[in-house]
Amino acid sequence: MDRLVIQGGHPLRGRIRVSGAKNAALPCLAAALLTDETVVLSNLPAVADIRTMVKVLQALGTEAALEAHPDGFELTATLACKGSEDPKAPYDLVKTMRASILVLGPLLARFGRATVSLPGGCAIGARPVNLHLEALERMGAQIEISHGYIHATVKGRLKAIDHAFEKVSVGATENILMAAALAEGTTVLRNAALEPEIGDLARLLVEMGAQIEGIGTGTLTITGVARLRGCEHAVIADRIEAGTYLCAVAAACGDVVLDRCEPEHLRSLLDLLERSGCVITEREGQDGRQLRIQREPGQKLRSKDVTTLPFPGFPTDLQAQVMAVMTQACGISVINEGIFENRFQHAMELERLGANLRTDGHTAIVAGPEELTGCTVMATDLRASAALVIAGLVARGETIVDRIYHLDRGYSGLERKLQGVGARIERVGGGKV
Ligand code: UD1
Known about the structure:
14 helices; four-stranded mixed β-sheet
């Protein structure tokens, strides 16, 4: 199994090009199920989750080709979903990637039937899918759960609903948005999630011929159409990947320019890092917007409190990385996890590296600055792994991050990008994504 070996204590200097957003790419891939015409999606990050979603689509009767760009960081998918008699997303694929549930809405809307494995729990919490199923039932779907699978059918087309989600959910908003695009009548989705990835999906759907109003707001109005067409679409930049590299520089010091990112999607993090004492500048580059972050060695960081919330609040997907930063800040930082119930598993590993912190329920308290010293650590999920890499870049001596298949699910060429800015980080074990 691959591991990352990091020699810490070296500031990061140079440029990193931000890849396409995994969490935008996954629903966009699922949206290809809504048409029998060809959908070409570019700027997909070259990560394991994208390959898994493509396998799910293939299992559902999609002809799919994935082409890697010469730099190896990006993929382009060409997809044509002709359909299958019995569309089924099998457990073996769904268990490795919960976002597979996003095929449910499109399959039901287009074929009137779908069988999708229940995703089950995961390392960061229970993560139920009740919000997805409730809305689809209101649209006329018959849903039965047996033998670990969701069996859904609908007679004729799904029917439009006026629906307020009980809780803000990124995945449920995406699933129902896709279903509504082919439903009969005008659907109104209230309390819809505001994450930028939903805006990207909505723009793809509009390019496919969907009628959607309110993109970027909490109320989406979708007038269903009988057919959608093929199109070409490039997914947005990955705000979580960009945020991870910003946190790496904040913690390990240096001066790095991130190319092709979208600062508007990162306001809560940029604000936090600036208030902590990092210097951040934004400007227009040749290839989209750029962010520059500077923190010179010896320049003190101030501790700040963080509460994770739905967008535009602070993203839960950057909580672990910011915890690693706060180990280097002067004072006490109180970190509240407002989205998932079990998302502090990186805390104990950070403690093994020398961090001074306590967790209690949804709250973590970090006291800094603390000198970190390298050791072997093990990651439990994708973003926890990123936090351990950041801590490894700071720690004196050698840190080994084990179980990096989690990282490979969501970061395109992480160690190559970090090497490019001077990090001493190496993959050992020989495997590739
Ligand atoms: C997406 C992101 C994930 C991110 C999360 C929150 C993708 C592929 N994944 O996950 O990286 O951490 O948003 O920003 O985009 N919930 C229910 N019932 C449901 C659905 C969700 O109770 O039917 C709860 C969840 O347990 C969680 C909260 O709602 O506590 C938010 O989850 P949700 O926004 O749905 O996350 P995902 O779409 O799974």
